Amino acid sequence: MKTPTTSPRYYIGLMSGTSLDGIDAALIAIDNDSPPRLLATHAEPMPDELHRLLLTLCHAEQVSFAQLATAEHAFSHCQAQAVKQLLAPLSVELEQISAIGSHGQTIEHAPKGHDGGPAYTLQLDNPSLLAELSGCTVVADFRRRDLAAGGQAAPLAPAFHQALFGRADTHQLVLNLGGFANLTWLSSQPSDPVIGFDTGPANVLLDAWFALHQGGRFDQSGDWAASGEVDEALLARLLSEPFFQQPPPRSTGRELFHLEWLQQHLSGQEDAANVQATLAELTAVSVARGIEQLRIDDDPLTLITAGGGAHNGYLMQRIAYHLPRATLTSPAAYGWPEDWIEAGAFAWLAHQRLHHLPGNLPSVTGAAGPRVLGGIYAC
Fold this sequence. Notes:
Helix content is 36%, strand content 21%. By secondary structure, it is α/β, with parallel strands linked by helices.
């Protein structure tokens, strides 16, 4: 394997999560001997028309090539705009950017296949067009190599969490609250494997139910959820989903947890605000149960919380309630605010690919071994 040079290299990471609220762009610097450094960020809002199209694709039983092409074209232009806005106020030239790491937009994720068919994961993306529009080399299609090696292809962020938060003097536990929630356990012992897995939905159901009943894209600070009461009978029905009993490695997405899945569990008599409160409780309980599976002895337990859900005050209160021995800590203490870790992860994965270094963790995804992830689209 090649070894990275000692001079800092600059990478851009682009991430559009399952919340479909926009494209996060992060500029990072990577040295040999230091954790990656976050230099600049930009959040490019998802245009309403593109948001609707992507949401349709995520839940469509059949799609046309024309729909996919339209979505990819608009998505790539939105990505290029994010890169332009990220670099506009900086004295960084395009020639200084080693690569853009593009996650793409997850449309469907089925690591165990469907109805006996092969495993697959689809991230809508057009890295060739992005390279043309941005003037930068692009690295994309990070997930399918891990899938080909028998892995879940998700979550991929734990490898970056290890590079960012790993310490020899203490354990670290990281919780990402995006559309879905995932945990990463980093032992202080280098010989111990990193553990990471999805615990279940985070914002995806909260956002969908809010949009259906209140309009808008999300429940600001969880205020609507806080106005309701948890429906314990509904919560029990939701938690009966077999996914919550699966051992790691495990990952999930919109193909399982979506508005129709929720509605199948409703009696039709529930108060809408109570359902929102119950969905927040579902996230909090499933996170707490995921941590219980890790059998961590640390007391008190430090939990680094990241992702958009970390700004949901009500949700964070419920997580704290179910984890009384945990201290919830912002990753900003490490120089990485809550919203930028996943975009940073795909910048880091681009670095790994360019230097022929593994980007997955077999202990997390279940792959047959470490693999170099992604394809290179040279500018």
